[in-house]
Amino acid sequence: MKFIASILFIFVLFPVFSQTNTATFEKYPVFPECADANIDQLEFCFNNTLQEFVYTNFEVPDIVTTENYKGAVAVFFEIDKEGKFRVIMVDAVYDQLKQEARRVFEMLPQIQPATYNGEPTYVQFTLAIKIPKVAPVKEEVTSIAATKTQPEEVVLNEYDNLVKLPYENEEYTSQINIPLSHHTYSLFDPALNRIGQNNHTAQKPYVYSEVNRYYNFEEENSKLLKNKSSWFGRKFWNEHMVTIKGEDYWITLDPGVDLQVGKDTDADIDTYNNTRLVYTQGGIGKNFNFFAVIYESQGRFADYFNRFAEARKPDGGNPAIIPGRGIAKDFKEDSYDYPLATGHISYSPSKTFNFQLGHGKNFIGDGYRSLLFSDNASPYPFFKINTTFWKIKYTNTWMSLRDVRPEVTADGSFRTKYIANHYLSYNVTKRLNIGLFESVIWQNDNDRGFDFNYLNPVIFYRAIEFSTGSRGGNAIIGLSGKFKFSDDVNVYSQLIIDEFSSGDISGGDGSYKNKIGYQLGAKYYDAFKVDGLMLQAEYNRVRPYTYSHNTVILNYGHNNQSLAHTLGANFSEFIGIARYQHGRIFSDAKVIVAKRGFEFNTEDDMFFYGGNIYGSEDNRISDNGNDLAQGNTTDFLHAELQAGYLLNPATNLKVYASVIFRDFKPEIDTAEVFENQTTWFNFGIRTDLFNWYYDF
């Protein structure tokens, strides 16, 4: 394994000298001239000796001088365990400059290598050589104060002295969230679930740096790189479109798409999605990172998907809410236009704390579904704190949500509500993890606004809910667990409790207050010794009235969508999933079988049976005798198959084909719930930055 050291040096008059930051080392490489230097002087002696050598031996090519070029040559090089210099890459405007840089580095002598833990180790550096050449300034241990007035020749050349360094996949060691994508996460899920590790896998999205400890992104992606030398070939198949890197910052900028064409053969609908996007990410300093995406989208989907979206339309005249995306307006005669922007900033002052402010989604759990908190609903503003120490990871999240129903809209403005939750993950042993979850929802009533009672990250939310009034808030608690039988097999579970009435939960008389749900699941990595094959089985069961509330605005929803399970409540569901990737080729298969209970919503029966979380418990069918899938009981089958090819691992650009078969059979056909079947074919190319859910 190569340990790569990192220290950043800025030399005003000559080069910019830096190292790749992935590890630390105990002792710098040693030139013969530095053999007698004290260990605390080796860093400066190494820098000074290398600068002087390059300045003395580097000859500026005639064409560069003739054309009066001013700039720099960036040399990315390595010193191996034997102390030999090796140039990895040279970035320069002229080929002659690249050749000259390589010639000079071939002249360097073999030196004593750097050491880590007392053993020789690899170390990588970036050296920027100013053109025209400028004599190096000898680096001393003591430095001039930054506030001291600089010489005029220095300040007048600040712009010219800005140096572009080669981008070295800094995102993989950054604090940026890895975009939520089930298939992408399945690639490194095995590396995160080995026995003996002290990591935590339920709080998502992960940040790159915490995953990179167990799954080397750069190494894995390097296996997929194509041998392309042209600018277009490199950018299309291997790299980000635009990369900018300086001494203490880096930025990438990429265009993207989510283009789909398809056919709902049963409803005879030609479907499409036309999303154009641009996204950027970057870092400023060592601890601050950012990520942002802007989407512009139009689409028309399968019949059942369109009806689901239109059934959740907001007040104000817009026709639909696209599930998981946002409010849509009319486009042409039969399509939707749904723009969206998401992003976050992330700051880690230490290895213990990470602070995030953003507009996006979060997920809690190890399964495909989550009964605690999922990425099913539209994005929302959030502030999050991750605290990691000992065997614990503690996540606090505060969010601002919207109720967009006409019943609560005032003066054209949607109703605001807030949610605060915390999740404590604890590694009991090297195999067993347990999690404790608590969440509270409150509305902006009596000009209450954001209730600062809920800023306390460790308080028991139920106590606050009680103190603010019986209908002042809605608290939910949950438990989770995961056990690793081996590096290849683990099981996971969740329990959600939405009503704190132990007598009703254990009484066995079917009380409407028995609002609980549970999840059981298992994962099998490299199944049957097939590398890259993951199998997953999951069972979810949620009783009627769970996530709903007698004050509807306090339900567990946002933008007319559930914050937990896609199906809401009053259902049982079995899911089987297989995912496979070999090189750039990937495939996914999924089968869902469920029994669901819907409301009738007819003139003869307008009771609430506990399936739609936006129903009012005050209109419940009964206090007792409530059974799973009560109401308009429906058999539900969803099967989905997808196969594709990863075009660019840096941007996660994919081309794919998919087919969905859906069978929906209620006991009684009503205007809103009726028997239908769907076969939906799709072909597309997309930048995979979020999860689409079609299985409802």
TrEMBL record:
<keyword id="KW-0732">Signal</keyword>
<protein>
    <submittedName>
        <fullName>Gliding motility protein RemB</fullName>
    </submittedName>
</protein>
<feature type="signal peptide">
    <location>
        <begin position="1"/>
        <end position="18"/>
    </location>
</feature>
<dbReference type="InterPro" id="IPR038636">
    <property type="entry name" value="Wzi_sf"/>
</dbReference>
